[in-house]
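User: Hey, my collaborator sent me this sequence without any context and asked if I could get a structure. I don't really work with proteins. Can you help?
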Amino acid sequence: MNRRGFLHSFWSYLLSFVGARWVMRAERATASVAPEENGKLFGMGIQVDKCIGCGLCMQACKSENDVPAEPFYFRTWVEQYVVKKDGEVAVNSIGTYRIGSPEDVSEKDVLRSYFVPKLCNQCENPPCVQVCPVRATFKTSEGVILVDDTRCIGCRYCIQACPYGARYLHPVKHTADKCTFCYHRTSRGLLPACVEVCPTQARVFGDVHRMASPLNRLKRMSKVHVLKDHLNTEPKVFYTNLDGGVR
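Assistant: No problem. I've predicted the 3D structure and written it out in structure-token form, which is a compact way to encode the shape of the chain:
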């Protein structure tokens, strides 16, 4: 082989080797990032110490999402926890119906009291999606769990499967209903109605994947907890200053 032939073969080999290496690196980089991580992933933070139990979030939710007016239908609700001096805890649901001890607690027996807003936790591993026999309950690319009314048969399996009690059967449509993070708003860059009306900014909405989002700032600045973390549903509703007695 002459000198020209040798150099041609050498450079051809070198270029093919370098090109193959870059292709392999690109494939590994693509495989290491889940597809959904390239887009938005919605979540909500709730600052328990800022909630005053005013109920404006519930009113805004009912108005925005046409939730039935009856007090036992809701997409979000607020629980009041009353810790007595003897260690007992009474739980009441603000503005909807009483779910705790029916008797009033005397003020002199109260050690402390606080409010905890609750809603669908938009789980990463949602039990409701797993049990739906007709696939009416599904997860969007932003991680929001929705219900397709045209497919739902009202079997209530998802209502029973939800560990957070966040679903109900709509009395008119006879389909499952729940919080959607006001998807018709948030998918267009707006805030959920409950977040927008909160007078103390107890609720914070944002993109989990965007480091500069209000939600991620809250998570960096505070110690956060999720409800029923032992169930491994991976909720995307995060609480700050959450008392261990909350269930």
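In plain terms: The radius of gyration is 25 Å. You can pass these tokens on to your collaborator as they are.
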